[in-house]
Amino acid sequence: MTVTPRSDEARPGDALVRAGGIVFIAGAVATLVTMAPLFLGTDPFPSYAWAVCMLMGVGFAISAAGVLRSAAAQRREARASQARAAAAQAARG
After folding, report:
1. Which of 4, 10, 71, 77 is the most buried (most CB within 10 A)?
2. At 59, is the secondary structure helix, strand, or coil?
């Protein structure tokens, strides 16, 4: 028997996934802003503006860490559930 958490219940890794999504979106907006001068024929932004574009990768890594943390917590929960079921089966005889 598996226990499904309620939808309003915070699970391990949820905050990391949410924060990673926000950082990714910030990096995507920065990428759009820094690429615009190339298409508009204006002066390009300085190199530090291009460095902000790397937030897309950072956000993706943060989200991936959150997903891995969530998967590990679900794996631990499943093992504990199996151990409880085995103990109950052994107690019954």
Report:
1. 77
2. helix
Question: Do 21 and 59 touch, CB atoms closer than 8 A?
Answer: yes
Residue 85 to residue 93: CA distance in whole angstroms: 13
Return the amino acid letter for 42. T
Burial of 61 (0-12, 13-18, 19+ CB in 10 A): middle
pLDDT in tens, the chain (93 residues): 556 656 667 788 899 999 999 999 999 999 999 999 889 988 988 888 888 999 999 999 999 999 999 999 889 989 988 888 888 888 886
Nearby residues of 25 by Cβ (< 8 Å), 6 or more positions away:
59
> Rounded to two decimals, what is the model's pTM?
0.75
How far apart CA 85 and CA 70 sit, in angstroms, is 23
At 8, is the secondary structure helix, strand, or coil? coil
Dig out the tokens for 30 from the structure: 């920065």
